[in-house]
Amino acid sequence: MTSSPIELADPHVRSTRFTRLADEHVHEIEIQRSVFHTVLAPVRSEDAARAVIEEQRRSFHDARHHCSAFILGPDQDTQRSSDDGEPAGTAGIPILTALAQRETSDERRDLTDVVAVVTRWFGGILLGAGGLVRAYSESVSQALDGARFETWHRKRELVVSVNMAQAGRAEHVIRGLGYTLLDTTYSATGCCMTIAVTDSEEGISAARAALQTAFAGEAEIAEGRAVWSQ
Question: Is 99 helix (H, G, I), strand (E, B) or coil?
Fold first, then answer.
C-alpha cells in the first residue's frame, strides 16, 4: 500500500530522495555466548528515537547494555550514537556506521529516519574491543538484511482542473501519462486532480506540456506544495 505524501517542511533540503524502514524489525544473534538483540524502528524525531531506546531499556532491564544509534532527516544531518557502558567506540559507532553505510537501491546509502538499539546479554566470554566492534556491526547488518524498506522521492504537487466534457476520462488520462494520482474531487462543472511530478523546473514544465496536450489545451494547472512521495 502506498503511504500518503509527506510535506517537505524544510525548503533547504538538498536530497531528492531518501529511504526509510517500512516497519519495525527485530533480529537476534549469539556470539561467543553473548546474545545481541537488535531492534530497528522508523522514527521521525530525536524524541521518538530516544523513546524507542528507553522502551528497550525497560523491556529488557536485566541486560547490562542497550547500545544505540539513529539517523534523522532527508539529508541524514542528525546522527547520534551511544556505547551505553561498552568500551568507547566499540558499540555506538559500529551501529551508526552499519546504518549509514547500508546500500538501499541504485548503490545509494540514503537510509534515514531510523533508530537501532542493540541489547546485549553478556555470556561470560570477553570479546575484546575488536570482537565487540564486529559483533555490534554484524548484529545490525543482519537485522537490516531482513528489514523492509520504502523509498521516497521529492515531488511537486500539481492541481489539474478539467471541465465536465473531460472529466469522464480524466483519471484514465493521468494514469496513462504515468503520474502519481494523489486525489480526485468532482463538482458540477468538472473535476480537480492532484498529481505528483518531479520537483524540478524541467519536470514541472514537461508535465504541464504533456497534460495540456492530453487534454487538448483545456486543462488548468496550478502548482501546489513540495512533498515526499513513494
Answer: helix
Of residues 169, 173, 220, 177, the one with CA closest to residue 197: 177
**How many whole angstroms separate alpha carbon 227 and alpha carbon 230?**
10
Q: Are 129 and 87 in contact (CB under 8 A)?
A: yes
* Residue 124 dihedral angles phi and psi, to the nearest 5°: 100, -10
**Of the candidates 170, 169, 162, 154, which has an alpha carbon nearest to the alpha carbon of residue 204?**
154
Predicted structure pTM score: 0.86
Question: Which pLDDT tens digit goes with each residue over 51-68?
Answer: 999 999 999 999 999 999
- Three cell numbers, residue 197: 511530478
The residues pairing with 162 across neighbouring beta strands, listed in sequence order, are: 191
Give the tens place of pLDDT for each residue, 188-224: 999 999 999 999 999 999 999 999 999 999 999 999 9
CB 42 within 8 A of CB 133: no
| Residue 153 buriedness (CB in 10 A; 0-12 / 13-18 / 19+) | middle
Distance CA 153, CA 161 (A): 24
Residue 208: other Cβ atoms inside 10 A: 16
* CA–CA distance, 69 with 96 (Å, rounded to integer): 5
**What residues pair up with 39 in beta bridges, in sequence order?**
26, 117
